[in-house]
Amino acid sequence: AEAVINSAFNCNGTELVSGSGDSSVRFWDTSTESPLHVCKAHRQWVLVIAWHPKCTYVASACKKGDICIWNPKTGTQKGKILTGHKKYIGTLAWQPLHCAKEENCLLASGSKDNTIKIWDPVRGQCVITLSSHTQGVTSIKWSGDDLIYSASQDRTIKVWRPSDGVLCRTLQGHGHWVNTMALSTDYAMRIGSWDPALQGKVQHNDALTVYNKYKGEGEEFLVSGSDDFTLFLWQPSKSNKPVCRMTGHQQLINQAMFSPNGRTIASASFDKSVKVWDGKTGKFISTLRGHVKAVTASVGTQTTSFSCQDHQIALSRFGV
Q: pLDDT tens across 200-212, in order?
């Protein structure tokens, strides 16, 4: 049996999808803990998975550089395999629902071949290729302002306008690979098509209301974490200057994320710790210790789970 490489919950936490080294994508019912579908089309390890904002589709990408779109209700593949990248794909990001035309959300993929491609899954075509990075793309975020942020091993973060592929600005400051990024509105965009208070799906127009509610006044914040042991806090839609440089970790940073309300940031590191920071100022708040090996992080619906190489998982509810 091969290892499970990636997994992701849908917007209301009722289904989980996982990608494996056996090249399969599997859907699970979280309430019964039973498998729903086993999907096979990839020919290499499935490295990354991303749910459509309305949870109507799931995108998966593999080591070969292929992307498949799946129907979670039936487990069937939608359209043809999307090909074009020359090396493996390590990150995917769907266009936020409130930014899409007629709910046809585009999909962005970032690859080791240094490029970002934007796809129209309905037509099964690449719309545009964004190329300016000089090393592999490690992370992509599609913001609620309809901008794409891409992080790379070339130590930079680039801000793109997806409508025409214009490079708006480059964010510099990290001294090594940029491994992870998170937006203060990630949670709002993930649940944008589903209102927890209503216990059901809501319409497209409501996604913008949910986004504005969580965003509040001002611009979105972006946090980035690097192999240089530091994090940077940015407001990239308006400036290429960082709000704050956040130091304290003693080894490389694997992942960072905002709390659902955007008020706090958690960062996980190879130094066996999780650190919590203020989401507006970047000020250090506290250190969570207990693991004895390197910490990686993953996020559920409202609770953050920190997984570790010591085979333990710690659950933490912070800043909700």
A: 554 445 788 888 8
The Cα–Cα gap between 171 and 300 comes to: 29
155-208 tens-digit pLDDT: 999 999 999 999 999 999 999 999 999 999 999 888 876 766 655 554 445 788
In this structure, which amino acid lies at residue 316?
A: S
CA atoms within 13 A on the CB side of 244: 15
What distance in Å separates the CA atoms of residue 30 and residue 10, rounded to the nearest whole number? 10
Tokens 């592929």 -> residue:
165
Backbone angles phi, psi at 308, to 5 degrees: -145, 160
Coil, helix or strand at residue 37: strand
User: How many Cα atoms sit within 13 Å of 137 on the Cβ side?
Assistant: 33
**CA dist 237 to 142, 149, 163, 190, 319, Å?**
12, 9, 15, 20, 24
Residue 40 bridge partners (DSSP): 24
Please say whether the beta carbons of 304 and 278 come within 8 A. no
Beta-sheet pairing, 4-9 with 15-20: antiparallel
CA dihedral over 201, 95, 276, 254, signed as positive or negative? positive
SS3 83: coil
Element spanning 187, H or E? helix 186-190
Residue at token pair 């905002």: 258
